Amino acid sequence: MQSTKPSHRLALFATFFALCVVVLGAFTRLSDAGLGCPDWPGCYGFAIWPTTSEQIAQADALFPHAPFEHEKAWPEVVHRYFAAALGLLIIGLVATAWRYRRVPGQPFKLPLFLLALVIAQGLFGMWTVTLRLWPQVVTVHLLGGFATLSLLWLLKLRLENRTWAPPPDPRQWRKLKPVALLALVLLVCQIALGGWTSSNYAALACPDLPTCQGRWLPPMDFGQGFNVFQEIGPNYLGGQMDGTARVAIHFTHRVGAIIVAAYLAFLLSRLYKHAGGPRMRLQAHVILVLLVAQLALGVSNILGSLPLWVAVAHNAGGALLLLSLVNLNYRLSRLGSW
User: Fold this and answer.
1) Of 160, 205, 214, nearest in space to 302 by CA
2) Is the Cα dihedral 169, 172, 187, 114 positive or negative?
3) Are 253 and 194 in contact (CB under 8 A)?
4) Is residue 161 within 8 Å of 105, Cβ to Cβ?
5) For residue range 199-230, what is the model confidence (pLDDT) as tens digits?
6) Cα–Cα distance measured from residue 29 to residue 25, given in angstroms and rounded to the nearest whole number
7) Which residues are known catalytic residues?
8) What is the pTM for the complete model shown?
């Protein structure tokens, strides 16, 4: 039995739209278009990128240090407009939540938090440009996008009003709650590592598998690789770290992938063993498929020297895997009353 609260469909659409924004952000970053527009919020002083020869000449005169490149400008502009449209959708969710705030069970604080988060995302988007791709800002901006996506999905779930049948053994499901929560925490840490790897251009630091540069333990500089207090430089496009620092970042991300995969395999074994119905078993199937796809995409990134669309798909896969764990944790929390 299911009945939905007002704005359920809007929340669902906003979640899909946020996924598009995350994918566009990944495409922009991985195609080295993060500075495709050297100014903010415009692009070379225009509402969109320059299109005529006169406009391009004007843009080059205004920004002689950053000559106009069409293939880098348009992804940045499209990403900005999609992000702005997502902000309008979230404002719509807040307005609807305020209108129906007296409806029992209507979330209100969550839409407000989402609005604050998307405003912060706009600021980090600006700082990404003005601070010239400073890795700390780029990584936080990426995490903010994933957080926005996850919270929109959580809002969609809370607006569903779905009734769940009690599981056959409620005690087993209660024991699964901390296991699933730790899986979510580990995945978020791995996504953060992936963001740090990307923002420091360390994805190709280890071009071979299963070794790294022909060694099981190559020379690594963890101090420089994970120095989050590095100063703001003139331009981080292409990265500024030494090779050993990038190897340390890549190697850590690779080890993290093994840990997360092993733990998710453990979680899946528990889910399949204690699945109380077709819906929970379906969630286990989805997590398994997404996990296998993520591992395959990660391996393809290394062996194929980071093909653009494979790398973008790897980002999208991480987002979907995150949503699947948010979904699982929410369902388990709803079962907690039995």
Assistant:
1) 205
2) positive
3) yes
4) yes
5) 999 999 999 999 999 999 999 999 999 998 88
6) 6
7) 76
8) 0.93
